[in-house]
Amino acid sequence: MDKMTLNDPQAPLRGTIAVPGDKSISHRAVMFGGMAKGRTTVSGFLPGEDCLRTIECFRLLGADISRTGTDLVIDSPGIDGWQEPADILYTGNSGTTTRLMLGILAGSRVHSVIAGDESIARRPMKRVTGPLQQMGADIRGRKGAQYTPVSVLGGPLRPIDYDMPVASAQVKSAILFAAMRAEGTSVIREKEVSRDHTERMMQNFGMRVQAEEGVITLQGGQELVPVHVDVPGDISSAAFFLAASALVPGSEVVLENVGLNPTRTGMIDVLEAMGTDFGVDVSRSDDSEIRGTVTIRSSSLKATEIGGDLIPRLIDEIPIIALLATQAEGTTVIRDAEELRVKETDRIAAVAEELGKLGADIIPTDDGMIINGPTKLSGAVLDSRGDHRIGMMAAVAALITDGPVELRGPGCIAISYPEFFEHLNNLRGN
Ligand code: SPQ
Predict the structure, then answer these.
(1) pLDDT tens across 254-286, in order?
(2) How far out from the chain centre does Cα 87 lie?
(3) What structural domains and CATH numbers belong to the chain?
(4) Probe ligand 1: pick from 343, 384, 389, max atoms within 8 Å of CB?
C-alpha cells in the first residue's frame, strides 16, 4: 500500500480502544529476556515492525523466541551462551534496536555486524559507539563508527563515568547494558532525565541500580533473573488519538491501558496547558510501570510554550502536538528539540513542510518551530517520508481538513502501530 485517500473529514471519534504495547518497553523486554539465562515471558508485546526486528536479532544470537499475538516466550542460553550470528543483525528502521544492541553486544562474547535501512544509515551512532569505545569496546564502522554498518567484537569492558551530552534514553541504555558487563561501578549523569524503562526493567530482572536526580550508578557483573514482563500501552501511540479526539468536534475517546511513566507523560502536561477536556484514571501502579485510562473530549485549544526538561518527556509526540498547535488560539513555541532533526526523518522539516501543504503557518527553527494558530486546513497530497510518526500525524490532520488528503507511504505506520487504521475506523463507526 503506497498511498491512500483519507475521506470524510470532521466525522467525530467516539468509543474505547486498548492502546497497543509500548514500543520502548517491548524492545527492552526482548533484550532483557534474550540476555537472561532461562525463560522470560512477556504479555502486551507490540508486534510492530521495529520490535519484530529485535526478536530476529536475538534469534540469530541463539535465543528461542515464540510469539502468539502479543505474548512471547523467550528461552535463552544467557548472554554467555550465545552463538556467533551466522548473518548480519538487521535492524530495519529501528534506532532503538540498533543503538541498544551495540551496548549489549559490546560486552558479549560474540562477533557481530549490525546494519539497518537507509534511514538508520543516516542516523548518528557515534553518540553510542564513542562512550562504548571509551569502555574498551572493539567497535568499527563506517566513518570511524559514526554510521552503520558497524561491527562489534564483544569482550571485556571497563566501567565508565559519563556525562551525557544529549538527553537520550538510547545512549543511556546502551551504556547501561555495557556497564552491566564491566568490572566495577559505572556512573552516568543526565542533564535532563530521559525515559527510564531500562533502569526499571533492570530492577524487575533482579538487579540493583541506583537512579537519583539524573545520576545512575550501576555495579557491573550482576546476574539477570528471568521474570514475566507485562508491557503497558504506548502513550506515544495514544497521543495520536488524544489529539484526534481533542481536534474533531463532537468526539469523546477512552484510551485504556496507557503507560503513564512520568518520564513519558509530557503530552499530558501539554494537553493540560492547551486547555483540553481530559481525565486520567490510574488503574495500576503495583509494578514498575504505571498505567491507566485517559478519557478525552473535543475542546477549544490555546497556544503554549514547550522546551527544557519537558522535551525528552514528549520528544516523539512533537509532530502531533504541532498539529494541535495549528488549531490553537495564539502562537505555540517549541524549542530545545534539535534532536528531532536526527530521527527517522528530520522531523522539524517534515512537520513544517507537510502541514504547510495543508495551509498551516509553521516556521521551522534550528531547535524547534513556531506555530501560529488557528488556521483552516485544506486537503492536499502528503508524504509520510517513511516515518511512522509523520504518517500518523498526516492521517490525523486529514480528520480536520476541508477536503480529502492523499497520504503517500502509509505502510510505515506498521513500524509502531500496526492497528492504527483499524482503531481509527472503529472510533469513527466504520
Ligand atoms: O527506535 P527509534 O527509531 O529511534 O524510535 C523513536 C520513535 O519515534 O519511535 C525515535 F525516532 O523513538 C525513540 C525516542 O525518540 C525511542 C527511544 C527508546 O526506546 O529508548 C528513545 C528516544 O530516542 P533518543 O534518541 O532520545 O534516545
Answers:
(1) 999 999 999 999 999 999 999 999 999 998 766
(2) 26
(3) 3-21+232-427 (3.65.10.10), 23-210 (3.65.10.10)
(4) 343
